[in-house]
Each structure stands twice: as structure tokens, then as C-alpha cells.
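Quick one: structure for this chain?
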Amino acid sequence: MTLSRPDPPAPDRRLIYALDGMSLDEALAAVRVLGRVVKVFKIGPGLVYEGGLGVAARIARAAPGGDAAVFLDLKSWDIPETLRNTLEAIVRHGGDAVALATLHSFGLAPETLHAFRARRGAGGRPRLLGVTLLTSQDQSDLAALGIGLGVEDFVLAMARRAQAAGCDGIVCSGHEVARVRGELPALLTVVPGIRPAAAGQDDQKRIVTPRQAILAGADHLVVGRPIRQAPDPLQAATAIQAEIQAALAERNATQTS
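Got it. Here's what it folds into:
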């Protein structure tokens, strides 16, 4: 199946704020504040376990203007039938609030998602993303599993698997995004492990700055702790948005010169 590349996100929807480690009340409070400059919010298993898939709509409505979207990061991995049932549940209970949803690329087989893609609404939600290799993992983790591929080659192999299965895009680090965009241009690229130049590394191993990720071709950047742990989270989010916009302008100027 030949996939066409989805339209690129609007400039103000490239930053995704991760609501990891928060209770539902804390997440809603954060969205009410940060929703002034952030339009997409990532929720993971913790919030879904607390409030069910309906939390996606609550998060989207909590943002000023009520027009935020959700990146549902459950990294689902199971047999094809169970994966399809999971996606149907996401659509039923998450509704249009869920713009992006993750699946593990390793568990995907060709034709796994094509029937589901054909049933999606006119808006094409949710866009399906294959997770390639976590940004907290590196070459030593692959070696420990007996995998002889280098990180970049492994990520590309998982990206090809995701595309063959019918995914709209992948999740990878900023170190691999340029090669993915070069060899698999139809895929959207979502990049976690984003750390502004002044931030620490914490448990992330394959990190890049917002500017580096955008110049490499990333479509979305996922940022959590550098915003959440900042003295002024709104100011930190605003600064990252400004860096993204400047990098987009730089990238566009390079492509048209």
C-alpha cells in the first residue's frame, strides 16, 4: 500500500507537551495554563488508568479555546486482532480529541492497520505512529538484547515495518530523523528526548535541542520535564515555541535557497 504524507502540522502545533507523572487534576491545571501557547498534549498510561480514555476529551476541552488535541502514547503491542480492537476503543472513547496514537513497530505486520485506516473519518484521526526505539535506550541496550544492528539501522528497520503495516508516522530520536525523512519521506516524524541547550540530560540518552530536531526534519517535538521543572513553565514553553518557529524559518530558507 502506497501512503501519501499527511499534511505537516501547523507551526503552533508542532510542540507537544508531555503530561507524564501527573494526576488528572494536575494535568488539567497544567493544560489550562500552558494551553495558551501549547496546542497538543501527550497523555500516557497513568492518566488513562486513572480516568479512562475519556480523559482525552477532558484534556482537549481544558485548554483555553477548547481546541487542543491529544497525543495518546500507549505504545500498544499485541496480536493484530487485539491491536485493531484497541484502536476501535480509542476512536469510540477518545473521539476527535485524539490526533495521534502510538503502537510498537516491532509488533506490527503488513496489512495490520490498513482496514482500520480505511474506516477513519474525514479528518483521518488518529494518525498512527510506530514507536521505533525509546530515547532512553542506545546501542548498549540493543546489544543486551542480542541485536547486532546499529541504532540508526534498527530505527530505520522499525520505521519500514511501521510504514508497511499502515502507520502514518513514527516516533524516533532527533539523531535518526534526518535519515528517516530521507529514505521514508511519507512518514510523519515525532521526536521525544528534546532538551534545550541549557537543560540536563536526566534518563534520556539520545537527545537533541529543539532547533536541531526541526532542522533535521522533525514534524512534532515532545517536551516534558524541561517545561514542567522550569521555574516558569509557561515562559519555558513560550521559549521553546519561539525556537521552533525560528528553526522552521531557517529550514525553509535553506530549502528555497
